[in-house]
Records
---
Amino acid sequence: MIRKLQSKDRKEIEKIIYQIENFTDEEKSVALELIDEALNKPEQNYYNIFVYEEDGKILGYHCVGKRALTDGVFDLYWIVVAPFAQDKGIGKVLLEHCENFVKENKGRWLFAETSSKDSYIATRNFYMRNNYSIVTQIKDFYRVGDSLIVFGKYFKT
Ligand SMILES: CC(C)(COP(=O)(O)OP(=O)(O)OC[C@H]1O[C@@H](n2cnc3c(N)ncnc32)[C@H](O)[C@@H]1OP(=O)(O)O)[C@@H](O)C(=O)NCCC(=O)NCCS
């Protein structure tokens, strides 16, 4: 089942984030910062975090939010599945949940920013297989040799 993040999930989520090999140390701490921001400020609505739970265990989560100054553009900030639970369709279920959240909130665009690094190939394939297209790329964005690839999906409103 997919439900909203709760304080009791923090420990398990932290463990999952630290198991993701393609995340740098900086990415891991930023991912965890967003979890804390959402937990410490329950009134905020820019980070909406939903967890995938099976038999009382957290297997993954996604974090989505509306982009400021737009009336219908959303960012998928993070989507993460525990390594041992990957390749079983959980990512797809989380992504579909995220898309439904966007549609329910009258969103028309959902963007996911990714790196061009080899270690992100599985992530890029994942977006392509789920019918995302590359809407833009910025060369040497993160660092020289590491470009930004923005995947997007448009929802007719
Ligand atoms: C990207 C990510 C969220 C995908 O999650 P996932 O649960 O592995 O995703 P799925 O299982 O839906 O799909 C992954 C692959 O498994 C395959 N698959 C799905 N169900 C399957 C099944 N029952 N049996 C065999 N293979 C299956 C899919 O074909 C898919 O292949 P593809 O990626 O080449 O299209 C996960 O790999 C992850 O957490 N990566 C590290 C973090 C990351 O990079 N996040 C994105 C940036 S924030």
---
Amino acid sequence: MTVTPAQLRALASRAETLTAEVRELCGSVPAGSPERDHLGAAWHAADWLARGAEDLQHAAEDLARLRSQPVCGIGWGVCPEHGNTLSSRAGVSTCRVCRLEWNYDRLGQPCREPVTWKVTDPAGTETKMCDGHVLGARAAMGSATFTRVDAGAEQW
Ligand SMILES: [Zn+2]
Ligand SMILES: [Zn+2]
């Protein structure tokens, strides 16, 4: 189950519509009529709905920011902490070191961990990868340069 920024934006726009409808309804009561005095709670509700719409928009933005963070993308999964230590059986991947389990074939899928390292081999080729993958790369590419990158840092 994945939540998308678009879904949150859709909810936000429904909250905005509701806000407008409540305000329109309350506003349709002529000034000075007795009903007007009894709609305080409804006006209040409209304010809350407006605030809810704003919060939903913020959540959508936060999520969009997360989605735009580059992911490792190397062709197989790793344990984020231990690297190439996964074994996969019957659709379940397990880390041989920490015994952490993923209830899908993590090993068989491209890595979705955030990029945290830039690895430059002696020929100058750069590969960006996650914490888990860099462990294997350190072992395999001793002569490469490893540079820590932080998400959102200048390197992007
Ligand atoms: Zn592990
Ligand atoms: Zn990775």
---
Amino acid sequence: MNIMKIMANKVTKVMGNKGNQIEILHGIDLQTSSGEFLSIIGPSGSGKTTLLKCLSGLVQPTSGTVKIDNQLLNNISERKIAKLRRTKISYIFQSYNLLPALSAFDNIVLPLRLSRQRINKTKIYQLMNSLNFKADLKQLPAELSGGEQQKVAIARALTMKAEIIFADEPTGALDSTSRQIIFDQLRQLADSGVCIVMVTHDIGQAAQTDRALVLNDGQVMAEVNHPTEPLLISAMNETKKAII
Ligand SMILES: Nc1ncnc2c1ncn2[C@@H]1O[C@H](COP(=O)(O)OP(=O)(O)OP(=O)(O)O)[C@@H](O)[C@H]1O
Ligand SMILES: [Mg+2]
């Protein structure tokens, strides 16, 4: 049975300084359950990252509500949100968010250390092999290429057995082979019951998810169940027409 994992109601987000404020999200409703692979597509600046941050509790919406496992995230204490991140949620950042002073290996195992879980070094080396990671795990993030840093960020999220994975363009810096390898890992996790919400520019990848939302200018313009590339392209074209 699929269990409801995320429920967002009328989420808005206003950003900017006093006197120069803009509403970036205009009342977004979204629900997703365990085992579902949801993708969010849309042009640059449409609010995808902001939405993902609101859904995961990294950022508080200006109005509206977000619930994870029926727990309201609005005004949740720092302690509770930290616990949620240690136990249930993984977030793959668009900008990787690796700690510069820690080696690649130490970055990967950081969530395990924080939650006092056992670290299986062999498993981590196997995972990195399967991700086609060729660099040395003792290196610092600054000594790695963008794609290698992205793989470290992905591995950090995958080693933690999260129930929900938020992934913000997780394969943007990768070649097509690595992109497919990582996508397949996420697909397998969804098939084993993990709820995945992935932002992507890649229509081909979105077409392999269970449902796609087309975001434009802070609004969900279309929702495509069992998406295919032609369905997504036509949904995006309709969206453009609606805006012109
Ligand atoms: N802290 C902030 N202050 C003011 N405006 C912001 C802030 N963060 C984001 N924005 C604006 O909000 C809009 C949406 O940004 P967001 O990063 O969510 O877009 P995105 O869809 O993820 O774009 P991309 O595909 O380029 O990653 C943009 O116009 C951006 O300039
Ligand atoms: Mg973004």
